[in-house]
Structure formats: structure tokens, C-alpha cells
Write a structure and sequence with these properties.
Elements: H1 4-16, H2 18-23, E1 26-31, E2 34-40, H3 54-70, E3 74-85, E4 94-104, E5 108-116, E6 122-135
Antiparallel strand pairs: 1-2, 2-4, 3-6, 4-5, 5-6
């Protein structure tokens, strides 16, 4: 179970970080080793083909995994990540990402991310690793 002060710090991080705000990210749920976030389908985030840009989708997956890892009360940075673009993100109001722990070690956390459209169709999947820097400031 996540400590209330950690959850408050994570919610504040998402609501005040300029990059996360630029993408319109919202933290829906968080627990130790788990996070659920969403990003609006916004014309400003489209690629030239009219789909949500892969970079925005990657950011959503990376941030969601990072929040899930931070929920243990630690501060982290991404060490690596990869994403599979399975189908175009379009005709949806939001893209939702669920990230869950594969392994939370002393120095490294590994997380799987799955992105869905409003109809529940999987659009992307990814895997991310985070280096644990120390305790999260709460």
C-alpha cells in the first residue's frame, strides 16, 4: 500500500511538471508497483499522418512506469525503454496507460506498460527500466 505522503508527492509532480502538463497527463490510480495514467487525444500531439505521435505515446508509457516505480517512495531516472507501436492511436478521446512492476530491486526497477484507446483496444506495449537514486522527497 502506498504511503499517503508519497501519493500526494506523485500527484503534485504530475500536476506541476511542465512537460507532463504540456502532454495533458493525468494520474488516475497509483499504488506500489502500479500506475494508471491517461493522455488526451489532442491535435497538438498528432504526427503528420493524423495519429498521436509516437514520441508522445512513448512519453506517456515512460512517465507511467516511472510513477509506478516511484510509488515505493524512491526517486528514479529512466535507464532504458522500448515500445512497440501495435496500432495507430486515433478516434479516441484518451489514451490510457497501465504500468506494472516486473521487478523492483535495490538499484533497478523494471516495468511493463500497456496503452489502450477508449474502446479498450491495445495500441502499444513497452518495457522500461529505472535506476533508483534514493528516497523521494515528500
Amino acid at each position: 500500500m502506498i504511503r499517503p505522503e508519497v501519493e500526494d508527492a506523485l500527484r503534485k509532480m504530475v500536476s506541476t511538471n511542465r512537460y507532463m502538463c504540456l502532454l495533458g497527463l493525468e494520474l488516475l490510480e497509483v499504488g506500489e508497483g502500479y500506475a494508471k495514467m491517461r493522455m488526451p487525444y489532442d491535435d497538438a500531439l498528432l504526427n503528420p499522418m493524423g495519429y498521436l505521435h509516437g514520441g508522445a505515446l512513448y512519453s506517456l508509457a515512460d512517465v507511467t512506469g516511472g510513477i509506478a516505480c516511484r510509488a515505493y517512495g524512491v526517486n528514479v531516472v529512466t535507464t532504458d525503454g522500448q515500445i512497440r507501436y501495435l496500432s495507430p492511436a486515433r478516434d479516441t478521446e484518451y489514451i490510457t496507460c497501465v504500468a506494472s512492476k516486473e521487478k523492483q530491486g535495490t538499484h533497478i526497477g523494471v516495468y511493463r506498460a500497456t496503452l489502450f484507446d477508449d474502446a479498450g483496444n491495445i495500441t502499444d506495449t513497452g518495457s522500461f527500466s529505472y535506476y533508483i537514486l534514493g528516497d523521494l522527497e515528500v
